[in-house]
Amino acid sequence: MFIEMFQLLFTVVSIEAVLILTLGFGTPVRRVVVKLLDLLKRGRGPLVTKTVAVTMLVLFGSVLFSTIQINRRVSESGGVANPTDQVMFANRLLEAFLMGTVLFLAMVIDRMHYYTRELQITRRNLEVAVKKTKTAA
């Protein structure tokens, strides 16, 4: 169970990292990614995205709570953890880190998409203004 979830989370983190790199550099692929993100933000896309994000946030909180419980149990038993608690703690910690990273990178992608769109709109408006001033002069 843990292996499949970790593979999924690592895959999502990798895809998000590629999207961030694509949005960060002015390549022809960036226009395609921006248009795909525009399509995603239309219709029911924001509702689905927010639902998934809230679900992951609840899971993130649950994993953190479980990690804190394991840590509390270890500290109550004299600071010595048995091997089962150590493995469970490590798995929960990795799971929490990956979920937090997924949520953070999703927020970064959203902001980069917003600023990329604003930059494109500002450039278009600037070009129109420059053309108007050239034809008026």
From TrEMBL:
Its predominant location is endoplasmic reticulum
* Keyword Transport set for record: yes
Q: Which GO terms describe its biological process?
A: endoplasmic reticulum to Golgi vesicle-mediated transport; intracellular protein transport; protein localization to endoplasmic reticulum exit site
InterPro entries the record matches:
BAP29/BAP31
State where the protein is found. Answer: Endoplasmic reticulum membrane
Task: Work out whether the entry's keyword set contains Amino-acid biosynthesis.
Answer: no
Q: Which GO terms describe its cellular component?
A: endoplasmic reticulum membrane
Enumerate the UniProt keywords alphabetically. Endoplasmic reticulum, ER-Golgi transport, Membrane, Protein transport, Transmembrane, Transmembrane helix, Transport
Annotated membrane-spanning segments are 6-26, 47-69, 89-109
Q: How does it sit in the membrane?
A: Multi-pass membrane protein
Q: What family does the Swiss-Prot or TrEMBL record give for this protein?
A: Belongs to the BCAP29/BCAP31 family.
The job of this chain, per UniProt, is described as: May play a role in anterograde transport of membrane proteins from the endoplasmic reticulum to the Golgi.
Instruction: Specify the protein name.
Output: Endoplasmic reticulum transmembrane protein
